[in-house]
Write a structure and sequence with these properties.
elongated; 119 residues; 3-stranded parallel beta sheet; Oxidized Rhodanese, domain 1; 2 domains; two-stranded antiparallel sheet; alpha/beta
C-alpha cells in the first residue's frame, strides 16, 4: 500500500475569514435581539399626536367587555384580517383590520369606548 501525502501547504486564512464572518453575524444577531427587547412597542396614533406604549393601554377582562357591550357602552372591534373575521368572530363585533385602523372608520365615533381584540 502506498501512503499518499498532501503536498499543499495548509493555508489558515480561509478558515480565519470564515470564523471572523461567523462571529460578526452572531454579534449582529445578538445586537438586534437586544434592541428588540428594549424598544417600546407603541400603538398607532395620528400624525403629530403622541403614541401610547402598550403598557399604557387599558386592559379589560372578558367579563367587563361583555357587560359593557351588552349595555351598549362599548363597541367591539375585531382587528384581524377579513378572512379571519369571516371564519369566526364575536357576535356583534365589527371588522376593521389593524392596518386600516389609522385611516379611521365611519363606524367609530370619538368618545366611544372601543374594545379591540385579535384572537
Amino acid at each position: 500500500m502506498r501512503k499518499t501525502t498532501n503536498n499543499q501547504p495548509n493555508n489558515p486564512i480561509p478558515l480565519v475569514l470564515i470564523a471572523v464572518g461567523a462571529v460578526l453575524v452572531i454579534g449582529v444577531l445578538l445586537w438586534q435581539l437586544a434592541q428588540s427587547r428594549t424598544a417600546p412597542i407603541t400603538a398607532a396614533a395620528e400624525p403629530g399626536k403622541p403614541t401610547l406604549a402598550v403598557e399604557q393601554i387599558e386592559r379589560v377582562t372578558v367579563e367587563d367587555a361583555k357587560k359593557a357591550f351588552d349595555e351598549k357602552k362599548a363597541i367591539i372591534v375585531d382587528v384581524r384580517s377579513y378572512d379571519s373575521y369571516a371564519a369566526g368572530h364575536i357576535t356583534g363585533a365589527i371588522s376593521i383590520p389593524l392596518g386600516e385602523l389609522e385611516q379611521g372608520s365611519g363606524e367609530l365615533k370619538a368618545g366611544e369606548w372601543i374594545i379591540l381584540y385579535c384572537t
